[in-house]
Design goal:
alpha/beta, globular, about 350 residues, 17 strands, about 25% helix, 8-stranded mixed β-sheet, 3-stranded antiparallel β-sheet, TIM Barrel
Length: about 350
C-alpha cells in the first residue's frame, strides 16, 4: 500500500555496512538496521538491503496557523504559516501530548488515517491557497521526514515561501547540512542542560548533540533560531539548570536569540505532576534577562505582557501579542525599534 501511494522512497543518508545491514544517518541514533528491520523512529525500513522511508507525502495533520503558535515571535510576525506533520518520532517523551502521531507506525496501518500521496507541489499549492507566507514541519519530529521536507523546502524557496522546522534538535549534522540551504527558521527545544532529564523522560542519553547541531544551524547556515524550554516541575526547574540554559543560548546562539519558557501541563506518565507554577515561569524570565538574554517570553499562560516584544534599549513596545492576536506597533520598515533604531533580531 505504501509503495502504491508513493510513500515508500529510498532514504537519504543511508550507509551500507555490508551483509545486508544498513546505517541510517538522518538522526543521532544512527540506527543499524538489518534486513526487514526498522529504525528507532519506526519510519525507516531495511528492504532488500536498502533503506526506505515509509512516510513520503504522508500527512497526519495540517493547518494554517499563526507563526506565533510554533512559537516563533521574531520571524514574519503576524503571518500565517501552513503547518504539517506526519507519523513517528525519534524521541519517546513520556509526557508527549502528540503521542497519537509520534508513536504511530506507518508500516502497520497508521498511514491509512492520513492524507497520502501529497507531493511537494500539492503542499506548496495548499499553503498558497490558505494565504500562508510560509510552511512549517511540526506536530512530530520533522527531521525523520527528511526526504519529503527537503523536496518541499526546495520548492518553497522557488515559490517565495519561508520554511520552518519545529524540532527536538536530534538531527545529525549531515541531515542539517542537507536541508540547511533551504531552511529559514530552526525552532528548537532545549529541554534541559542535564543528562538525567533526557535519559529518564525522553530515553536519549544526553543533550550534547542537540546543542551542537543548534549551534551549527546558527554558525554555518545563519538560520533564525528560537529556543523553547517547557519547564517541568521537579525536573528542569532548578535555578542552576535555567541559568545554564540561558547562558548557553547567550554564548552559543547570541543574546538576541528569543527564549520561550513555557508552562508544563500534566500528561501521559507525568500526569501526577502539577502545572508549572506561575512564579516559577516568572523566575525563569528573570533568570534569562539577568544572564543577558534580550528577549525572554512566557508560553502556555496568559499574563497580558509576557508575550510582548519590547526594545531592550529604550523599552518601547515593538510587538503586542495576546494569544495569537498580534499588533506591530513599534517597528520600522527594517524590523528595528521605531524609537531608537535598535536591532531587535526581527525579520519582517
Amino acid at each position: 500500500m505504501l509503495r502504491n501511494v508513493g510513500a515508500l522512497r529510498e532514504a537519504v543518508l543511508s550507509e551500507d555496512l555490508g551483509e545486508g545491514r544498513m546505517r541510517c544517518n538522518i538522526c543521532q541514533w544512527r540506527c543499524r538496521i538489518s534486513e526487514g528491520g526498522v529504525g528507532h523512529c519506526r519510519t525507516i525500513i531495511n528492504y532488500g538491503g536498502k533503506l526506505y522511508t515509509t512516510i513520503y507525502g504522508v500527512i497526519s495533520s495540517a493547518a494554517a496557523d499563526p507563526i506565533e503558535k510554533k512559537p516563533v515571535f521574531h520571524y514574519k510576525p503576524g503571518s500565517l504559516c501552513f503547518s504539517v506533520g506526519t507519523l513517528g518520532c525519534n524521541f519517546r517523551c513520556i509526557f508527549c501530548q502528540n503521542w497519537e502521531i509520534a508513536y504511530a507506525d506507518a508500516l502497520h496501518g497508521a498511514a491509512r488515517s492520513c492524507k497520502l500521496g501529497v507531493e511537494p507541489h500539492l503542499l506548496v499549492r495548499s499553503a498558497k491557497e490558505t494565504g500562508s507566507q510560509g510552511v512549517a514541519w511540526t506536530y512530530n519530529e520533522p527531521s525523520i521526514w527528511l526526504n519529503y521536507t527537503l523536496d518541499c523546502a526546495k520548492l518553497c524557496k522557488q515559490e517565495g515561501l519561508y520554511t520552518v522546522y519545529v524540532t527536538n534538535g536530534y538531527a545529525t549534522p549531515e541531515a542539517l547540512d542537507l536541508i540547511g540551504p533551504y531552511l529559514d527558521v530552526y525552532r528548537v527545544d532545549i529541554k534541559s542542560m542535564e543528562d538525567r532529564f533526557y535519559r529518564e523522560l525522553i530515553k536519549v542519553p544526553s543533550p550534547k548533540g542537540i546543542l551542537e547541531v543548534a549551534e551549527r544551524a546558527k554558525s554555518k547556515w545563519q538560520m533564525h533560531i528560537e529556543c523553547v524550554t517547557n519547564i517541568v516541575p521537579g525536573w528542569n526547574d532548578s535555578e542552576d539548570n535555567l541559568r545554564q540554559t540561558a547562558r548557553w543560548i547567550r554564548d552559543k546562539l547570541g543574546d538576541d536569540t528569543p527564549w520561550h519558557v513555557t508552562r508544563f501541563f500534566p500528561y501521559g506518565k507525568l500526569s501526577d505532576l502539577p502545572p508549572t507554577p506561575l512564579e516559577t515561569l516568572n523566575a525563569a524570565v528573570d533568570i534569562g534577562k539577568s544572564e543577558g538574554l534580550k528577549f525572554v517570553y512566557l508560553g502556555n499562560v496568559r499574563t497580558g505582557t509576557g508575550e510582548n516584544t519590547y526594545c531592550p534599549k529604550c523599552g518601547n513596545l515593538a510587538v503586542e501579542r495576546f494569544g495569537y492576536s498580534v499588533r506591530i506597533v513599534g517597528l520600522n520598515a527594517e524590523g528595528r525599534c521605531s524609537v531608537d533604531n535598535e536591532d531587535l533580531n526581527m525579520h519582517i
